[in-house]
Amino acid sequence: MSLRLFRSKSYVGLDIGAKVIKAVQVERSNSGWKVTRVAHGPTPPGALKDGVVSEVEALAHAIQGLLRSGRISATTAVIGASGASVVVRKVTVGKMPEAVLRKSIKLEAGRYVSSSVEDSFIEFEILGDTEDGQMEILVVAAPRELVQTRVLACEQAGLEVEVVDVDPFATYRVLVEAAPDGALYEETVALVDVGAQTTNVSVVRSGVFAMTRTIPQGGQLLTEALSSYFKLEEEQAEQGKAQLDLRVLLNEAQPQENPPLRVVQPHVDDLVREIRRSLNYFQSQQADGQGSPVNRVLLCGGAAAMPGLAAYMEHRLGIPTQLVGVFDNPRFTFAGLEEVGQGLDLTVASGLAMRPFARAA
Fold first, then answer.
1. Which of 44, 67, 177, 287 falls between 20 and 30 A from 19, CA-CA?
2. Is 167 within the bounds of a domain?
3. Tens digits of residue pLDDT in 213-226
């Protein structure tokens, strides 16, 4: 237990996406969490390439404008890292003291990191012992360039970066860890976060990360398909996409001719196929195939708001699929005036904002 009477830092969770930057501030409340500030702003075109910031000054300027428009006065940020180059993997190693593991973790991580371990930030968490006398650890690795360019952009925007978290961990913090009564700790759930350019798929079994994978497909692919086929500007294609409802495609008895839906359907099917492959891989890694299969999919992210996506995914996967935003959880309240809806796109930013509180507990 510690006394924190003179907490001087104020934190903002900053989710730097390919299309949109989201900023969230939270406070602890008696029943859970109070979201006190929310802000959205466009990511400068071309500012991110494969997760690495290629236009640091432009991104810094955008972050400054976002904080100003959202009346966010925080001086310290918690930011996220994600993408195909960010590795989150559960592995089994021989039992050893943590100090010894820390010295050998680069060698262990080198088996799973595609880039040079010398060019990566590597961390780990010891999960516990296995039945055969070994121990399980969760290894996290991210390219130094990806992390350092994001930190640099924030610093140029006037923010001190105290923590660089991993986006799937932030999602877990909101959807699983903060769930009422710890209801999801007894289940095996898949967290599917659909963004503009990528989709993060994580499997959490009994409250512990079992697998995380990034799929290089997201909502932008559907927008581009509509734009290309119907010769539309991107904004028009986005508006058209928002008016589609994938549930129409499930009425196989009375198929309806809907050209826009037929244009996006192959891309949605590709995404669902990759999600299924991820879940099948998870199941194949369970000892003798006896591990609990995924019994629920929690769907979030800005691109998950496409009407009917949850129902379509549930039909294709054969697994109950639930569209979940921050404010679907009764433990989260919003003190602002603007409309935030379910908060589907605020999961990562909110989870990042919660990180300092979790560390201080």
1. 177
2. yes
3. 999 999 999 999 99
